[in-house]
Amino acid sequence: MTPTLVRQHVRHAGRVPRVDQRARARDWSEIQERMLVPLYEAVYERLEVGAGTRLLGLGCGSGLALLMAASRGAVVTGVDTCPERLALARRRLQPENWETRARADARLVEGAPEDAGGARRQAYTVVTSFEPLGHGGGDGAETVELLSAAAALAERGAPVVLAGWGPPERCATTQVLQVAGRADGPADGPGHSRAGLRDGLEEVAQRAGLRPDGSGRVACPFGYADVDSAVRGLRSTGLFDAADAASDPAQVDKETAEALEAYRRADGTVWMPNVFRYLVARTR
C-alpha cells in the first residue's frame, strides 16, 4: 500500500493515464498513511525501538512511520523512489524551524537501499518494509532484491520486518481492491499473490537470504470521513494504476465507490475492518 520501493510497475499495454503525483502524495499523507499506525506501533513495541536504534525504512513514503520511530529516540533513515512523498516527509522530519534531536537524526534518501549506505555510517540495527505485500504481481524478484540490498547494510542478526495483508476473510478492504485487480486476472489479483498466502512473507524473506524469526497480527481498520475520501485514500496507494490503464479512470472510480457502499455507515463514514500480518526476519 504505501509508498514506494516495493510497488509493482504497471505492465499493461495501452494508454497510461496521467497521474497528479503531488495530489496523490498529499492524499497518501493526509488520508491513507495513518491507517497503518497500529502496525507501526506493534512492531516498534515488539522490537523495543528507541534510543540506540538505527532504523532504515524502505518505502518510507511521507514519513509517518519514521516520525514515530524518531519520537521514540531512534536514528532514522528513509528510502523511497517518490520525490513528492519524500518532500512531505522532509516537512515532517526536517522542518527548518525544528531544532529538536529528531531533526538531526532523520535522513531521507531518494533512490535504492544502496544509496542509504556509506563507508562512514554505522550498520542499521532495524530494517522495516511496511508496505503490505500480497496485492498485485510486484511482490517477487523486485522485493527480494530490495530486501537483500537493505540487509547488506544492517548488522548481523538485525531484524528485518515485512508486512502483508491478513486472511481475505478478515480484510474488508480486499473486496474493494478486487476492482483494482480485475486488469490482472485471478493469478495475481488482490489476495492471490504468493505473499498473500499463509507462508508468503516467509518465502519472500528466505529468498532474500533472511531467517524468519517470529510473526504477529495487528488489527488495522480503514476509516474514512466519506466515500470520496475513501476513494482518494485507496487511490493514493497506486494499486489502481493497472485498472486505470486497462479501463477508464472515471469508471474505476465509480466501481470503487460502489464497492465501498457496503461499508458506509448511516452517518456517511466508511469503516472497513482489516487484519495485517508482519514477519520479523533476521539478517545472516
TrEMBL record:
It holds the Pfam family Methyltransf_25. Transmembrane segments: none annotated. GO terms for molecular function: methyltransferase activity. Residues 56-135 form the Methyltransferase domain. Keywords: Methyltransferase, Transferase. InterPro entries: Methyltransf_25, SAM-dependent_MTases_sf. One of its GO terms (biological process) is methylation. The keyword Transferase applies. Gene3D superfamilies: Vaccinia Virus protein VP39 (3.40.50.150). This is Methyltransferase domain-containing protein. It comes from Streptomyces tropicalis.
